[in-house]
């Protein structure tokens, strides 16, 4: 029987083969057979996947073994997130402080087909508001203006702003401020938040009486007005009076009461034939006669949130307080559909905003 001893070819030994006759055979260290092989280690992805699979299996087994506890937990989570019943802890995603309301016709034209230019204007306006809301953590709701047809039976198509404001306040029950913007508006300074612009310094940024600017010649003072009350509505005035192309309302019991009275069909039926500008004229009438309304309305200069392009307010074309200058916050192309080019104006101010905020190191 042979007494030869062999070292394993894949071991870390010296690789010698010995036999009883004293002959020794050496393997070269470069020989492919003289190597140590280790199992390939799994990468981090496989380790994480295995861990998650094991965790999922444990959760599944727990749910199967404890059905009553699982049902109770699911019920508690549902009640917490989707109801407001008492004696249950409630967790929810914080509501935005400001919600932007944008009027649009996403479903098509209201009374006629929309042209390619109208689609382009709408896309540009919506994208502008979406980017602004995302930058500052605001909410955005796009209201389809085809709902005008809801009011056609009573010739109330231009009163939808009041109704939509009420709907939006119900939709966002914890939001404080609501900012209405017409479709033909463009935020030119998107890096500035509303808080920075005027909300954090509201009393100093606004004026409360009409002594400073009164294009309609309304009464500058009426009895029982208390201007120490907080401001719950922020509007601007243009050459024709109050402008509702861009305005803000704060959630309060005062706001709810104003919206109810503003939308009251009895007042509408009485005066709608005399009110050329619909809800705008109705608000002017309420402001001029009701002390409780006047005392909570604040006015911003037009160019703060509502600057006009050339062509609007044409009868006062030389008055600089109405018309856009570089770095004004918002441009409102009011009335562009009446003899002006809405698409051309929108493209012009889009390009201007990009130019004003283009960094010197960017070449495109």
Automatic annotation (TrEMBL):
It is an enzyme of class 2 (transferase). One of its GO terms (cellular component) is Golgi membrane. One of its GO terms (molecular function) is glycosyltransferase activity. Keywords: Glycosyltransferase, Membrane, Transferase, Transmembrane, Transmembrane helix. Its EC number is 2.4.1.-. Belongs to the glycosyltransferase 34 family. This is Galactosyltransferase.
